[in-house]
Design goal:
The complex is a heterodimer. Helix content of chain A is about 50%, strand content about 15%. In chain A, helix 3 links the parallel strand 1 and strand 2. In chain A, helix 6 crosses helix 8. The N and C termini of chain A lie far apart (about 50 Å). The N terminus and C terminus of chain B are likely disordered. In chain B, strand 2 and strand 3 form a beta hairpin. By secondary structure, chain B is mainly alpha-helical. Chain B starts with 12 loop residues before the first strand and ends in a 19-residue tail after the last helix. A two-stranded antiparallel ribbon of chain B has the order 2-3. In chain B, helix 1 crosses helix 2, helix 5 packs across helix 8 and helix 7 crosses helix 8. The chains are: A alpha/beta, B mainly alpha.
């Protein structure tokens, strides 16, 4: 490795050193995917639960959407689910993690990916997790929303039961050093 | 907007200004764009960064608040003051010093390899150049002054910065020219 690369590598290590200084920054993750009620029978739902637990263990604020009262609030305020979620992401989410597996999550992917690229100035990170069986298909999803996230975020194809959560957590922990959610409000 | 069970407004996505302060502390004296380029190297996976307008506003605000002082108006080079030190917590100050020492060490090692290219000009009287003095005195970090007036770089400070810039200029995409390193005559 050249000296120049050595210097670059040593500079990148500074990010790890800064973890102690910025680990308490508030960082809101909007975690989309199949409902957690199916965690015992559906691999994607189980992965969503696993990611939620691991993020919360690292002091991230995790917002799940429909599992946390959206349906109740929709009935109360007559709001539309996708509008509520878009507003929430725009104003408060530091990252969207989307496990594309259920009908609802595919709808979210189309809507959120468009907003991510065109409307929120990409201050929000976007990580899309898709089943590896769809990886090489030429489809609207792969050529449209998935490609958008591959370019302006991170696209991961995997077997849902063998997903490496470590890389995802590290990416978000690093990002927490740069962008965070200010204020003293509580989401729970 | 009520979303979850309940939550309170007045929260928003923000850039971590403390990180910017840390970056300036490591490179000082440095221009806003240099600090941003340096941070992009530290965080290669982060693609979204504030624009130039935000940076300039931020530095302008810090200057008004006496967190930083301008050392070279032509190149917008800034350095931290003692007030900025107080704004950073202990962990951040420690990491700033650690990073600066690490870079200076790398720069010093790089400067030891330079003689191959420098030997051609070393004939005659012994040089009183910045590099020569740096090799004699070793590289040390420049501490921030407790008052803005103390942030004027000492000769040793300017020498350290010169060596530091020599090393970083090879890896930072945005960096001011070599000869813009701060020396007292430019103040």
């Amino acid at each position: 490795m050249s000296k120049k690369n050595n210097l670059k590598k040593s500079v990148e290590k500074f990010a790890n050193d800064l973890e102690g200084a910025f680990e308490n920054r508030r960082f809101v993750v909007f975690l989309c995917g199949p409902t957690l009620d199916l965690a015992c029978e559906d691999k994607a739902a189980a992965l969503r639960k696993c990611i939620k637990d691991e993020l919360e263990a690292e002091d991230f604020d995790v917002v799940l959407g429909e599992d946390d009262g959206l349906e109740m609030l929709r009935k109360k305020f007559s709001g539309m689910a996708h509008d509520n979620e878009l507003q929430f992401i725009q104003a408060h989410s530091n990252a969207v993690v989307l496990i594309a597996s259920s009908a609802g999550s595919f709808c979210e992917l189309g809507l959120f990916s468009h907003q991510h690229v065109h409307a929120n100035a990409r201050r929000t990170d976007f990580i899309l997790i898709m089943d590896e069986t769809f990886k090489n298909e030429v489809s609207y999803m792969n050529e449209g929303p998935a490609k958008a996230i591959e370019i302006f975020g991170q696209l991961v194809h995997c077997d849902f039961s063998a997903f490496d959560t470590g890389a995802l957590i590290n990416r978000l922990k690093t990002r927490r050093h740069v962008w965070f959610t200010s204020g003293t409000g509580s989401f729970t | 907007m009520v979303y979850k069970r309940y939550w309170i407004l007045h929260v928003s996505i923000q850039f971590n200004d403390q990180l910017l302060l840390w970056g300036l502390g490591v490179l000082q004296p440095a221009a806003p764009q240099e600090v941003l380029s340096f941070l992009k190297l530290v965080y290669p996976t982060v693609e979204q960064w504030p624009d130039e307008l935000y940076l300039n506003d931020c530095f302008s605000h810090w200057e008004t608040s006496n967190y930083i002082v301008v050392l070279n108006k032509k190149y917008s080079m800034y350095s931290l003051t003692g007030l900025a030190n107080m704004r950073m917590d202990v962990k951040l100050r420690r990491q700033r010093d650690k990073a600066r020492i690490s870079l200076l060490r790398a720069a010093y090692d790089a400067s030891l390899r330079l003689p191959g290219g420098m030997d051609q000009d070393l004939g005659g009287a012994s040089p009183s150049s910045e590099i020569s003095s740096t090799l004699q005195e070793g590289s040390r970090p420049v501490g921030s002054g407790s008052k803005p007036s103390r942030t004027e770089p000492t000769r040793r400070g300017s020498q350290s910065n010169l060596v530091l810039r020599l090393a970083l200029i090879s890896i930072l995409p945005v960096f001011l020219p070599f000869n813009t390193a701060i020396v007292p005559s430019q103040l």
